[in-house]
């Protein structure tokens, strides 16, 4: 077991543009000293999801002002940075390219070391961050740990060995959990992204009213699936709509039942992964990790077995620059560097163990 992670002493700038948030932050010795974001959610909402080309164009408009705002917040001059970290994989290619080109240009301009990070690895590493008051979730963490990474594009169980060094243990075979929530919310006419809206409605609902299938029941490996749940959810919506019964109470109960089915599957497979791997420190990361039912239920499942559960603090669950700066800071401390003239962006990950320390060109 290796003890808690080390960070670069100086300020590291993190740039995240893989989807619809233009996010920049500064992390110094594991502490987030600045965090800025220009969210495109209102822009994409009218389309019911992210439009890639629109996302790239808006990243272009926002990136430099957001970088400047982060530097001003931390009171750091660009040339005084100890490093620049950027998400270069996976994500929307046009959106990633804006962040990567900006990071390369600034690294050359300021003669600053550059590192590239994997988006999912950065989500998981956010558990190690602290705020200026010292609050975080990773105090005393030992590696390797088990990480459940749940976002709009990914649902994976990973063995986290070190900064950006992860082995894939299991993953969804179809939709990601966040995607299953977003698509179901769209059916109900909820605004994008629907995960937080479903959570809000679910709070007043009866999670046992509608019976929904738990994906991959009967299998005992670490695969997950959300497509059957989505189909069953759609059937219930159609039936209620046809009967004129999709009233406010039914909507709340349906959201509670749907969220419950998602969470139950995530918890069941994560517990199985912890039992099989013997990894009893369990990190929950990614946008869906903001969900209270998931946090509470997985924590209970862990604590009742004598395991440690470490949900990433809420402010670093959905896409943010701090997670990128944090992982970049640890990679820089480990001596990782990219060539600013050669770094490229990569839209998809290869299906094999992911090592963020390897260069992707
Ligand atoms: O990590 P993230 O910000 O972006 C991606 O990398 O995809 O995750 C976004 C996903 C969306 O599907 C969104 O609906 C979901 O996270 N999400 C939530 C909550 N907050 C965000 N899902 C459930 N409950 C929440 N509170
Ligand atoms: Zn994400």
What would your notes on this structure say?
It contains 10 helices and 11 strands. By secondary structure, it is α/β, with parallel strands linked by helices. The strands form 2 sheets. The protein has a 6-stranded mixed beta sheet with strand order 10-9-6-7-8-11, with helices on both faces. Strand 4, helix 3 (93-110) and strand 5 (114-118) form a beta-alpha-beta unit. Helix 5 runs parallel beside helix 7. The chain is globular, with a radius of gyration of 20 Å. The site of zinc ion has 6 residues, from helix 4.
Tell me roughly what share of residues is in helical segments: 25-40%
Query: Helix and strand string, N-terminal first?
Result: EEEHHEHEHEEEHHHHEHEHE
Count of separate DSSP helical elements: 10
| Average of pLDDT | 94
Number of strands: 11
The SS-based structural class is alpha/beta
